[in-house]
Each structure stands twice: as C-alpha cells, then as structure tokens.
Write a structure and sequence with these properties.
With 133 residues, this protein is an alpha+beta fold. It has one domain: HIT-like (HIT family, subunit A), CATH 3.30.428.10. It is built from 3 helices and 5 strands. It has a 5-stranded antiparallel sheet with strand order 1-2-3-5-4. It is globular, with a radius of gyration of 14 Å. The termini are far apart.
Length: 133
Amino acid sequence: MPSIFSKIVAGEIPCYKVAENDEFLAFLDIMPLATGHTLVIPKKETDYIFDIEDDAYQRLWAFAKEVAVVLKEKVPCKRVGLSVIGLEVAHAHIHLIPLQQISDMNFSKEKVPAPQQELAALARLLFEAGSKA
C-alpha cells in the first residue's frame, strides 16, 4: 500500500510544494512544529532512510541542503534544524525546521494545523526563491 507521501508524489493528495526535481520533493508540513517546517522526501518510496542506495542518499542530502539554505534566507530563524525519525510515516523523510530555540524541535509537543492561506503564501515564497537559486 502506497504511503501518504507516495500519494503526494503521485498528485493524489495536494501539498504545499517548496522544491522539486526528478528524484526529490520538499513540501511544508501541515502540522508544523515551527513556521516553515518542511519535509524532504525521495520520490521513490523507501521506508528506512538508510536503505536508500548510496548515491541517491547523498543526492537527497544535497537537495535538503539547498532547501535549508532557502528556508534560512526566507523564514526568520537562527538556524534550520533537521531530524530524521522515520516512525510516523513509512517513507523516508527529513524534517527541516526553522529554529529560534532548541525547544522548537520538540516532537512530543502538541502540533497545531497551520492556516492554509499561510502555508500557500509561504510555499509560493519558498518555491520562487528556490527557483531563482
């Protein structure tokens, strides 16, 4: 059964896309820990990040770095933190989270859905900035 992320890649479920190439997709988390919380995924469904073939694994991290640079540029923050947990969705993904303080990366705190208009505006800003980079 395809993961929710595979359904996003296939266009069956909409997302707030911030970057994309032939192999990878980055989109805003709809239940963010902080404004700009972005998920970076390989389009090829792989459950465990360390099962990704070595060359693709390196390209995934290079893509995530490009997205993080744009996030840092466009979302006010001290740093962009990252996390790979891999338990909540059976599809490898990297969390990129703009940080003001370490507690912004607390995955046990209650998540609150972000307003759709806010997500759409931020996705446009990030996608346009990334396209020009």
